[in-house]
Amino acid sequence: MPLTATYTEELVRGIASDEATFEKARKIAAAKRFQNLGVSTDGSWLFGECPGSATEPYILSADFHDPAAPVLRSSSPSRKHPDSFSIALLLAYLQDPSAFGEREPTEDLLIKREKKLAQDEKKKSGSAVPRKITKTAQDKKSSAQREGLELLERFLVDLIAGGKWLDAGNLEKVEKLSKQLGDASLPASVYGLRKLLLIAKQKETTEEDKTFLAAEVIGLLWNTIQRAKAYSANKLLPGETQAEADIFIEDVIGRALQLADLREKGYFQSNLQLFELAFERTDDESRQQRVEISNLLDMSSGAIHQAATHRPFKGLSQVPEQISYEQPFTVPELAVCPGFVNRRLRWEKGSEHIHEHPPADFLAKAHALAQTSFQAALIAFREQLKHALAPREAVFFLRIERIGKIGERVVIQDGTNARIEMKDRRKDYSNVANLVRAAGMMGKDNPALLVRLSVQTSSNLVFGQPLAALTAKHHVRLGL
Known about the structure:
Elements: H1 9-15, H2 19-30, E1 35-39, E2 45-50, E3 58-63, E4 71-74, H3 84-95, E5 101-102, H4 107-125, H5 135-162, H6 168-183, H7 187-201, H8 207-232, H9 242-253, H10 259-264, E6 268-284, E7 289-298, E8 304-312, E9 329-336, E10 345-346, E11 353-354, H11 362-367, H12 374-385, E12 393-399, E13 402-406, E14 409-413, E15 419-422, H13 431-442, E16 448-456, E17 461-470, E18 475-477
Parallel strand pairs: 1-5
Antiparallel strand pairs: 1-2, 2-3, 3-4, 6-7, 6-9, 7-8, 9-10, 9-11, 12-16, 13-14, 14-15, 16-17, 17-18
């Protein structure tokens, strides 16, 4: 009997832990090295064996009890999960299903399936909870955080009183303190201190601008201390709601909200149809992470959400890449995390349904969701900036009437003649130049533009970085 689940190569690519694993799997499948290929009589299992570096072939299986999220198992010693041999097994079935004879799962595999089903049922009922932390471990963490916050508070008072924030002596103290706070699970405080070190190293920034930037970071650090003191004691700041605290609690005291927590707090939604307008990869030196962001248009509300993955520089290969989606897709159940303009989305990997053949008028419907007024976007952005720890940038989907130049500056204009200047954030690649070229291609069609708004600290002016352009006929990504 053939496999009851259906899948595509694109779905297999999404299951792979990274692109390198997928490419290696494709080579393994193409080499036709598999032995004892099999599919169960109920069509819910795949089996195979494949020679590798070990003496005996690796034993492989794919459990399709949930067709959208197959469970892959492999006896190979690879640290990646799923490994290239498991992914290759799925590709081998796509290439030649007739090569798979009848085979049944072992008793051991059936027991593992039952355990996985029980775990999934707990997650669905909301009873899945994060790993329990013993009271002693929690007490130790709280004590380390209190000591770290006291050190940071005393340091900031001395730093402000003494002036010369970025001289060599103070920077040496900053570096030492950032390491201490890293051990105390105070991530936002560590990021802030590293930002001071990075500001000091900026060669092309004037001393005046460095002072502006450092002042902003010091203010953020002070606010972080007050929040960390409250959150570590399970309290809120005066006038703060729990929903507002949920936005910051992970960064401030390292207390991550699991999917079960988000479900319990009421942040889950059902059947959200999404369309990726732009995908970005950037390195965040203060976090020492690679940040990968999928900018997603909510096809029901027009909101711009983000699916993001933070991959530490040390151990980059251990964290799967954020998936980029070429086609619109629907997620049956997902968390819309607390936040500001751009809410982060989280869902069980592989549960999304890709729409391989969207309707002919799909781009026109997406284009119609763009905001027609820059003013509304600017008001929402300024409202976000009122919160001290909120991101100093936000992504909007805006309807454009004109794209042109004023001198050497590239500007966009809406129907009320309001304008926003476009600027690049990298020196080695120009989104703005791509925008000018795209405008020429689109002709008189008024595009909708995905734009990241930011504030230039020293001048307090808002500028935009173009990320993607869209009309009823074209979708053009403007970045790498």
